Amino acid sequence: MTFNPDDYLIKQVSNDDVGAFEVLYKKHYRMVYNYARHLIDDPSACQDVVQDVFTYIWESRHKLEIKKSFKSYLMSACHNTCLNHLNKQRVKQKHVTEIINRSGNYHDGYEVIFEDELKEAIDNAMEDFPEQCREVFILSRMKGLKHKEIGKILNISPKTVETQIYRALKMLKKKLVITFFIISYILIFCM
């Protein structure tokens, strides 16, 4: 039976020998780190994996049973720790994606609220329109009729329809400038 320095050091570590643990750590750090780098692209995450592997060894030093060589044990522990890390990253990414999707749904909810507020503001502004102007605007913008069709319905010329639409839009612009400003501000700066 040949002398194995790792077996001796593990025995010392199980007896709370910090110096023996430091020797094992320094001796095997690079090997464990390089193996982790094959599985994980992030150098910082690889350092965390190495720390986790050696922390586990120190914390479980009294009950540690190594059936194979210490190097094989380290590689297996590193492999499993890397897999755990990658699984956690996948779960985090899944949660981030869900949050982004939910945020999109809230954004759509805001759009519905703003659309309702805008419709209400337009309805309120239209109450101040002269009767013919309001009728022309509703037929044109709300019902989508053409100038000639509106003219026939209301018994006015297409030119009068055009003039009434122009007046309605001008009045709307004056009345809704503050509403547009508030909605634009919220859409631009609060979302």
In short:
The chain has 7 helices and no strands.
How would you describe what is shown here?
There is one protein chain. The chain is mostly helical and 191 residues long. The chain has two domains: 90 residues, RNA polymerase sigma factor, region 2, helix turn helix motif (Rna Polymerase Sigma Factor, Chain: A), CATH 1.10.1740; 62 residues, Winged helix-like DNA-binding domain superfamily/Winged helix DNA-binding domain (Arc Repressor Mutant, subunit A). Helix 1 packs across helix 2, helix 2 packs antiparallel against helix 3 and helix 2 packs across helix 4. The two termini are 71 Å apart. The model has no long low-confidence stretch (mean pLDDT 83).
SSE map:
Layout: H1 5-14, H2 18-39, H3 43-59, H4 70-126, H5 131-142, H6 147-154, H7 158-189
Helix pairs in contact: 1-2, 2-3, 2-4, 3-4, 4-7, 5-7, 6-7
* Shape annotation: rod-shaped
Helix content: over 70%
What is CATH's topology name of the largest domain?
Rna Polymerase Sigma Factor, Chain: A
Overall domain count: 2
Provide the low-confidence segments as ranges.
none
Beta-strand segment tally: 0
What is the CATH C level class of the largest domain, in words? Mainly Alpha
- Helices, by number, come to 7
Largest sheet: none
- H and E string: HHHHHHH
CATH architecture of the largest domain: Orthogonal Bundle
User: How many angstroms does the end-to-end distance come to?
Assistant: 71 Å
Mean pLDDT: 83
- The share of residues in extended strands comes to under 5%
Rg, Å, rounded: 37 Å
Task: Tell me the structural class.
Answer: mainly alpha
The CATH superfamily of the largest domain turns out to be: RNA polymerase sigma factor, region 2, helix turn helix motif
